[in-house]
């Protein structure tokens, strides 16, 4: 039987991939990689880029292209039959990565190359790739005694398994809870669109009434609009005790023990490598040098933001007291009364706004924004094999529509067995092969937005539109790279710089000329009337300090957890979270919150001791956008310079060097504070 994962095609054959294909394919690819390393090292001691690095890069690319659709399918079509083989593959890949990272002869070969006269003749991207590789050898423990190298391998394998189990538990817990409501009076306050979706959800299960779930479109609607406070509480409690020891599913998919083991292993790993804690180890590959620098940055921001956050919360508390005699505002009240207060202050109704953000209008407007900014055109391509009928495929061309630059898959709607949130991931990386052929990049752009209801198109909130722009910022970073070495092309940058393009592109969601492009009533195509546009823009910084405080809470918890961990103490996650809340939060939270148990970014993603990256990178992205504010938000020359100085350079140079080339100076925080309305 032919294995579709081993078939050489331009794009993955998703519909043909089965769970039984993945282990044999990964085993074969790893074996080929091991054989190539042995072959290259047997050639002697004169190592060059073309005879040594290039073959290794091409073998790595083959493995990346094989693994990419497997990793993606696991995220968007998770199923029981995939879990065991996927876990086995992750273990195989982890062992292989450790074998490469600790290969003494391979490390020596790279060192000899770096020390040679040949190295100084290489292009910048190739030198940067070699430098990064040597750094990664050290972070893989190549310098350790044999016994410690072996322990490193065991720890890495176990951490990989824990990461997968953590994500699976969150997904299972999210899918494992729903509520059927039979009394229509309990739905008071919910928009008809949401009620129709809940009715359809119940019908799919063959049940009467309305079915509400913990998937984001359903959960957020319940928290924002439902008048029944007890019902809001039940959903909030179920959501914030997922994958934990308490709540309606208490103990069923408990991530608490996983967090404990993960933290112990991370700390051990850091100390094996000579770091005091995992925070130091994490920062070894980032822009920031020390945990103290991060803490100084976060605490300085906290001092600036918290007074305004306290005023915003007090205003909301007073509003709830006046409206409904709510003496003590609770977390399950915040979205509900925030929406009511926003309507009162700005005469703005988020549900009414949805009518002006239908899917196709938003997409075409976004494509026009990208055309004006970056001189690219986007066309949909039919007939491409995908993992679900709802997935669409687009191609990116130059402004004349002649040169094909890259492509992307677009998977927009929430559904069962699909990981929550929104993300961009690499499908195919840009690079130039040994024949001089340019490999065009391909990316996945995945969201969990509201879907069409009946004959009505998908109508998105402005927040969902911002999320779409955010992910497209990542996508454009990947697709517009001009770096010919995959290891430092596209989004392969220091992790605390990866959010710069994504947060940068969000800014156009708040500009009147751009809003005119991305909005239009789904029935009449009429633009946003001034009565809606002006309040939308005026409300941009509504409760913005409360939002930043939430980000600061996540960031400080993440960093302190990894910096302060003490193996003999254990059980520190909830204790540190409580301490951070004491310093940051402006309202008292219930002691039953189990936020760490679903913190995918740090326990299953790549943000461990790095969640601060969102705020750190936004200082750069806001300052970069300020140049467009100064010279024109659709200034094509500035857009061209942004591509040339930043987007197209990938990780071939340090992010601050690239930023200074675009801005003419080092970044400043003024624009960040101004954009968030922080006084």
Please describe what this structure looks like:
There is one protein chain. The protein has 679 residues and is an alpha+beta fold. The chain folds into four domains: 4-101 and 103-139, Glutathione S-transferase Yfyf (Class Pi), Chain A, domain 2 (Up-down Bundle); 176-239; 256-348 and 544-611, Orthogonal Bundle (Neurolysin, domain 3), CATH 1.10.1370; 359-538 and 614-675, Neurolysin, domain 3, CATH 1.10.1370. Helix content is 56%, strand content 7%. It contains 27 helices and nine strands. The chain has a five-stranded mixed beta sheet with strand order 3-4-5-9-6. A two-stranded antiparallel sheet has the order 1-2. The protein has a two-stranded antiparallel sheet with strand order 7-8. The termini are far apart. The relative contact order is 0.10. The model has no long low-confidence stretch (mean pLDDT 96).
Q: Would you summarize the structure shown here?
A:
This protein is an alpha+beta fold and 679 residues long. It contains 27 helices and nine strands.
- Output the CATH class name of the largest domain: Mainly Alpha
What does the average pLDDT come to? 96
Strand order, largest beta sheet = 3-4-5-9-6
Counting H and I runs of at least 4 residues, what is the number of helices? 27
Could you name the ranges where pLDDT drops below 50 across 5 or more consecutive residues?
none
Largest sheet: 5 strands, mixed
At the third CATH level, what is the topology name of the largest domain? Neurolysin, domain 3
């Amino acid at each position: 039987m032919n294995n579709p994962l081993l078939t050489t095609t331009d794009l993955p054959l998703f519909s043909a991939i089965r769970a039984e294909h993945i282990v044999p394919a990964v085993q074969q690819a790893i074996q080929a990689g091991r054989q190539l390393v042995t072959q290259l090292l047997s050639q002697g001691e004169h190592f060059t880029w073309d005879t040594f690095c290039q073959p290794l890069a091409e073998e790595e690319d083959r493995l990346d292209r094989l693994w990419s659709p497997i990793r993606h399918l696991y995220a968007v079509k998770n199923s029981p039959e995939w879990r065991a083989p996927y876990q086995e593959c992750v273990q195989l890949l982890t062992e292989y990565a450790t074998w490469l990272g600790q290969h003494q002869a391979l490390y020596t070969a790279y060192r000899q190359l770096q020390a040679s006269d040949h190295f100084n003749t290489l292009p910048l991207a190739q030198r940067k790739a070699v430098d990064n590789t040597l750094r990664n050898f050290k972070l893989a423990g190549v310098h350790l005694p044999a016994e410690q190298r072996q322990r490193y391998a065991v720890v890495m394998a176990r951490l990989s398994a824990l990461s997968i189990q953590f994500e699976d538990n969150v997904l299972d817990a999210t899918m494992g809870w729903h509520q059927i409501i039979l009394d229509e009076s309990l739905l008071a306050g919910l928009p008809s669109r949401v009620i129709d979706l809940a009715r359809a959800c119940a019908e799919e299960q063959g049940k009467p009434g309305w079915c509400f779930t913990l998937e984001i479109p359903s959960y957020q609607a319940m928290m924002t609009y439902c008048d029944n406070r007890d019902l809001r509480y039940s959903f909030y409690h179920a959501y914030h005790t997922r994958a934990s020891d308490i709540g309606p599913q208490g103990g069923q998919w408990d991530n608490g023990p996983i967090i404990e083991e993960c933290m112990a292993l991370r700390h051990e790993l850091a100390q094996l490598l000579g770091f005091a804690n995992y925070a130091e180890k994490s920062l070894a590959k980032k822009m920031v040098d020390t945990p103290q620098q991060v803490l100084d940055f976060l605490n300085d921001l906290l001092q600036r933001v918290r007074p305004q956050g306290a005023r915003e919360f007090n205003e909301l508390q007073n509003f709830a007291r006046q409206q409904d005699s709510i003496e003590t505002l609770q977390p399950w009240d915040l979205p509900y009364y925030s929406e009511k207060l926003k309507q009162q202050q700005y005469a703005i109704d988020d549900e009414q706004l949805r009518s002006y953000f239908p899917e196709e209008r938003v997409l075409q407007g976004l494509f026009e924004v990208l055309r004006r900014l970056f001189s690219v055109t986007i066309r949909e391509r039919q007939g491409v094999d995908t993992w679900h009928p709802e997935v669409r495929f687009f191609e990116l061309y130059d402004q004349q529509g002649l040169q094909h630059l890259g492509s992307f898959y677009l998977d927009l709607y929430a559904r069962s067995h699909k990981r929550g949130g929104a993300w961009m991931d690499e499908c195919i990386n840009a690079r130039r092969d040994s024949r001089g052929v340019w490999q065009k990049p391909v990316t996945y752009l995945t969201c969990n937005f509201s879907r069409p209801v009946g004959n009505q198109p998908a109508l998105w909130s402005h927040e969902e539109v911002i999320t779409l722009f955010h992910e497209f910022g990542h996508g454009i970073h990947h697709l517009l790279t001009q770096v010919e070495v995959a290891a430092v092309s596209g989004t392969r940058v220091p992790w605390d710089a990866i959010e710069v393009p994504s947060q940068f592109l969000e800014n156009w969601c708040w500009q009147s000329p751009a809003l005119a492009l991305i909005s239009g009533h789904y029935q009449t195509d009429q633009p946003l009337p001034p009565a809606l546009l002006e309040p939308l823009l005026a409300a941009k910084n509504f409760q913005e300090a409360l939002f930043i405080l939430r980000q600061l809470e996540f960031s400080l918890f993440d960093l302190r957890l990894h910096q302060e961990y003490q193996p003999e103490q254990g059980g520190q996650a909830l204790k540190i979270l409580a301490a951070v809340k004491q310093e940051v939060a402006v309202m008292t939270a219930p002691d039953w919150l189990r936020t760490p148990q679903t913190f995918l970014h740090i326990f299953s993603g790549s943000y461990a001791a790095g969640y601060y990256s969102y705020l750190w990178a936004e200082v750069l992205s806001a300052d970069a956008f300020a140049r467009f504010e100064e010279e024109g938000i659709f200034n094509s020359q500035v857009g061209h310079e942004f591509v040339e100085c930043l987007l197209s350079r990938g990780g071939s140079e340090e992010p601050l060097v690239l930023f200074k080339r675009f801005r003419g100076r080092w970044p400043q925080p003024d624009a960040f504070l101004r954009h968030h309305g922080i006084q």
